[in-house]
Amino acid sequence: MAVLKQLPVDAFPRDFAWGAATAAYQIEGGWDMDGKGPSIWDTFCHAKGRVFKDQTGDVACNSYQLWEEDLKCIQQLGLTHYRLSFSWSRLLPDGTTNYVNPKGVTYYNKVINDLIANAVMPMITLNHFDLPQALENRGGWKSPEIVEFFDSYAKFCFETFGDRVKLWITVNEPYVCAKLGYEDGLHAPGLKEPGTSVYLVGHNMLRAHTRAWHSYDTHFRHLQGGKVSIGLNSDWAEPLDPDCPEDVAATQRYMDFILGWFACPVFCTGDYPESMKSRIQAKSLQFGFSEGPRLPEFSENELSPLGTADFFALNYYTSRKVKDTSSHPSELSFTGDQGAEGVTDPSWPVCGVSWLAVVPEGLHKLLNYIKETCNNPAIYITENGFSQIGPVELEDTDRCQFYQNTLQEVSKAIRDDGVDVRGYFAWSLLDNFEWADGFSVRFGLFHLDFSKVELKRTIYRSGREYAAVISRHRTKLEKT
Ligand code: BGC
Description:
binds beta-D-glucopyranose, alpha/beta, 3-stranded mixed sheet, TIM Barrel, 15 helices, 8-stranded parallel beta barrel
């Protein structure tokens, strides 16, 4: 029996965006084709010992050459929206507008035009982890210069593609990029600089986003009428012991250090959460850190991040129970600053990767939390998914159940709680290059056989069932 067929589609608004998402480095391949410059992920993967079995995104799903196969997948699902990212260094090989790669422009023009011809609305992420290596060589996200480079790139994209693209995300998951790339060294550029660079990188991402949003607002919005946001990921967190005040406070810190870090400046106050400011300052004192504030301050002379999002772009995967660790001995580090540890509840099933406890009701609670704390924004769930590790079954019934439960929770948030959810993007359209896990972890609605050059796309049962939900929603609309 098809589980997703039981989903009541009535709760979803008429113009609900039914989408799937991907990111350039994870699917495109063609890493040095047709004038593309290298990105930090090319460099990271080409160095040995960083990624599962030293795999790389050199070819990935070869979407650079097989775009039309992806389009068939999109058509088969009946998506109304498709979220993809631009490879910055495919468009601007050295990261700057000094030289534009015409073949990169041609590629993305074709993708966008094909989508629109098929009544699929593109949502474009300008930077999904793959910073041009040439800019990394100039200091990357740690350098204040990056704000100018990002703004020029964003303006170039708005100018070139904004007549057709109406939904933009500037930076994907600054939390993950800063934490895994500069604190833990698990993602590109692979730096381990605990307790310092992470905040600087986050700050520069926020400043870059702010500049780009203002550029759009000033120069493009009146001509193009689109919307711009920043892609924020968050777990949902609850206290491990709800009767323990320390765990309750730690839970708030846990949320503040992941979601509030960016959501608070953009949606609430124009500044970082108080808990971050006070904890980081106290820890700096404790460790005798005297090289200036580790958490940068927003300057009066700069544009404020407050109000720089036309919708809330939320990536949700999992939940945690949180215990207080604020008095545990620690090194100078992000986790030490946070003073909170998230653990999984033994009753939660885990899918594929150990971090991914499957908790659909966490999304429901998180949606309500965003409604309450971020001034009831319009929300697009820009990523959410369920992973499998090989050998995988095309009859992925667990994943079907996951989508059923998740969409049920989303529908409850809309119908029962009045959360303004505008769309849902499954991560991911295709099995793809899952960063440090290489091709071992599969999130796709379509299966790929990475051992064969054809890289044939084959729909999973979860893909068929997701398509059935979309089709039922569309049929219902036609009748009313
Ligand atoms: C990222 C995706 C990634 C997914 C699953 C998100 O953090 O935006 O690129 O594949 O999580 O790990």
